[in-house]
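Example S7 (structure tokens).
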């Protein structure tokens, strides 16, 4: 969504989306190594941190920072302090 906001010349909305994306990436990276869920229909299911399909083993925060936010569509706000704070928070 942030890219679409940039294409529509809505940088404030793009920054809001990027803040949400950064927050979600942190939550994803900080999830437990293993979680067990249980339901009446599906029984017990265990999810592990490694149970998602990707060849990229970096933390999602690094992928967001180094790949997605490197897109040229964000060049107009790259010098913005708010964009810098988002980047700095993705460690």
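Recovered sequence:
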């Amino acid at each position: 969504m942030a890219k679409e906001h940039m294409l529509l010349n809505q940088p404030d909305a793009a920054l809001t989306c990027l803040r949400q994306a950064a927050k979600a990436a942190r939550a994803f990276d900080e999830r437990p190594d293993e979680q067990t869920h249980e339901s009446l229909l599906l029984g017990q299911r265990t999810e592990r941190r490694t149970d998602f399909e990707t060849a990229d083993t970096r933390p999602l925060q690094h992928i967001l920072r180094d790949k997605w936010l490197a897109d040229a569509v964000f060049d107009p706000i790259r010098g913005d302090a708010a964009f810098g704070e988002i980047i700095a928070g993705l460690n």
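Notes on this example. The chain has one domain: 2-14+21-89.
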